[in-house]
Design a protein that fits this description.
The structure is a homodimer. Chain A is an alpha/beta fold. Chain A is built from 14 helices and 17 strands. Strand 14 of chain A pairs antiparallel with strand 14 of chain B.
């Protein structure tokens, strides 16, 4: 079955907001096994909305509209759809009560008159209660087509979709799509894609597709199946093949697991603690590690050593080293890592020192030059990087490479 | 003049990525004074793309397509547009050289054969160099219509648009839209919006509209004018009025200035240094401050004191305080701030201690409870917060509140 999305709202056309609803709905509907070939945005204009609705119904089985269900005169979605189907609007008593109740609960206020139009419902439509706002969702089934109207605000549309729309659509289209996210580090994107080029070409169910992620390579593996058990059976051979090709470079196949979470797990397994000493990344590396709930089991303290003086005082980096080689050098990165581990009494430590830009570069040490030091139980490894992005990107990449380095060292492989 | 956008890419239809290009292009084009009534997404399908292009050209003056310019067989945009215009494709020697050069510089590699199709150009098209990737942009002018083809990746499309496309469009449509972003802190969103409700209703040129930002309130003030000078004249009375109403809660009217940049400027002005001591925010606060190029003038070192032991050893927080009041308490936040300032020899310090969640909460100290301490030249102020988001949101809010607190203290106002 095909589904099409129309996002209603002039603010989207003006670029005032990013259309996250479209991405959310597409992803949800794809997972439900529905095919989508068209998505569009229309402003708060009766004529253009009418045209878009008719066009969509001429080519898709299901049409989902979001937005334009509010109390203002610009909110037209319901009126236009009712007109296209030749339906009258009537006041739904139950919805009117819910709106009154919502105002009392959330705004401690009387309902302003313009809100009543949200209680008007097209004849024959199924009303979907809104538990996070005033405008109800609506489902119309007519002439073999289904039209679903949903409120615009993301915090209203998502709970409504999960609670009521997804089950409804699942009845229409029982076969679903299941996916895993194979996350790989320690290898470049081009190389990784070359290694799966044959699979990307040949595989039809499941399919494999690359996903962008700073400093990592992600492949989404997607299977069309009647239920999760069948999907797992379809996944198994492809996942085994990927495992054969990438070995322990794969750190998870679960979408929600981040590299930092995988590292915290590794440390917990090995009963090890870690620390960080950051210069140019200024806290972002520690920020990623402490993203992980329970990081406090393995991470107790960290250092942001922006100045040379801080590197000496907090980490014991030798002045001679800083004078002879400079703050941005493999020697300093090494001493920072060792010094941090010692100061924190930790088993492992990551250090980052570099030139994020835009200023600070020289011909010998240009912007983008970063050294990462990794100390694990007495042994220190230092890697040199030459990033080519802006300040933000260089810092982001440095953090990603540091985490990857630590994982390699913890696994005992290169 | 009307502009229409078509985003090309099956990954958008599948909801695998959020269509940020559409929002970016809409916003840029609105600022250039172009009207947009249609936006759509089409997959990597020749027939549907052909139909969409023809439809767009039938109703809009300018068509901008993003995506589908890459080296794979799924990349069709250029081929389809050339066909619609009846143009042949020829190999552009200069573009071919640029692609070769890019591969040498960035990938230290030979160009794989499939990349050569990116050097194919429709007859009569203007080639727009890509300084961040391989596929050039293209501009075709035919029968009073303009078609612009841009690469999909956001980090390629944005620089190209700013450098070459915006000036080109500005020639087509000279009257533009100018805007300022009035950024306000130290006041809640509801209160701020109430304070400008009359302006939002009455103002037509310039207009004022609210924008979401964690822990801050932003108002975009937009003027339609023939040039920047006229725009500034239109802005002046409204900006004065906002200044009268919000005083120094406004930290900038420039879109690119962040709260942390405003704070670093304040510190530089006052010739002061600062430090940070973070527990639950784990480096994110320092990360924001070090976002600012030149932060090293005012920020020399910082501490991530995740464990009680780290709070004692690095910051001198008294054991009795930790035992009696706990790590998450105003007393500990105070000692952390004082201790950090002393340890770093800094004039100002921010401390954050709290329970980000999802675990760690108790009835007395629930998830979301955060204390922020702010030390400025001998005086410490502590604020208590009760955040109600998830782990990420709570940490984000804590960082935003901490920065706001420091700004208030530096300005000497509450």
């Amino acid at each position: 079955m095909t589904v099409e999305f129309i996002s209603v709202g002039t603010e989207i056309l003006l670029g005032n907001i990013v259309n996250t609803n479209a991405a959310y709905l597409s992803e949800q509907c794809a997972a439900l096994g529905l095919s989508c070939f068209h998505q569009s945005v229309v402003g708060d204009n009766e004529e253009r909305l009418d045209e878009a609705v008719r066009k969509a119904l001429s080519r898709s089985d299901i049409l989902i509209l979001s937005g334009g269900l509010g109390p203002t005169k610009d909110d037209l979605t319901k009126e236009v759809v009712a007109k296209v189907f030749g339906k009258e609007l009537y006041e739904d008593g139950r919805t009117k009560e819910r709106i009154q109740d919502y105002f009392r609960r959330v705004h401690s206020d009387q309902v302003t008159p313009n809100n009543w139009k949200q209680a008007m419902v097209p004849e024959g439509a199924k009303v979907v209660d809104n538990h996070n706002g005033t405008a109800p969702g609506l489902i119309l089934e007519e002439n073999g087509k289904t039209v679903i109207l949903l409120p615009g605000p993301p915090n209203e549309i998502k709970p409504m979709f999960e609670r009521d729309i997804a089950p409804y659509l699942n009845e229409l289209q029982p076969e679903g799509i299941y996916s895993k996210m194979v996350k790989i580090c320690s290898i470049g994107e081009s190389k990784a894609e070359t290694m799966v080029a044959d699979l990307m070409d040949e595989q039809t169910n499941p399919t494999i597709a690359p996903y962008a992620k700073t400093g990592e390579v992600h492949f989404r593996v997607t299977a069309k199946a009647s239920d999760e058990e069948v999907a797992e059976q379809l996944f198994a051979p492809l996942l085994e093949e990927l495992s054969r090709r990438f070995g322990d470079k794969i750190y998870t196949t679960r979408e929600e697991v981040t590299l930092e979470a995988a590292i915290v797990s590794l440390l917990e397994e090995k009963k090890m603690t870690m620390t960080t000493a950051e210069s140019c990344t200024g806290g972002l590396l520690a920020g990623r590690i402490t993203n992980v709930p329970g990081a406090s089991n393995v991470y107790k303290e960290g250092y942001i050593t922006y100045s040379n003086d801080a590197k000496e005082r907090l980490l014991g980096v030798k002045r001679e080293t800083l004078v002879q080689y400079g703050a941005v050098s493999p020697q300093t990165a090494k001493e920072m890592a060792r010094g941090a581990a010692k100061a924190a009494g930790a088993d492992a430590a990551l250090s980052v020192t570099g030139i994020a830009g835009p200023g600070g570069g020289t011909p010998e040490k240009p912007v983008g030059l970063v050294y990462v030091g990794c100390y694990v139980k007495g042994h220190v490894r230092v890697e040199e990087f030459h990033f080519t992005g802006n300040r933000d990107k260089n810092r982001e990449f440095a953090v990603a490479r540091a985490l990857t380095l630590l994982r390699e060292e913890l696994l005992g492989t290169k």
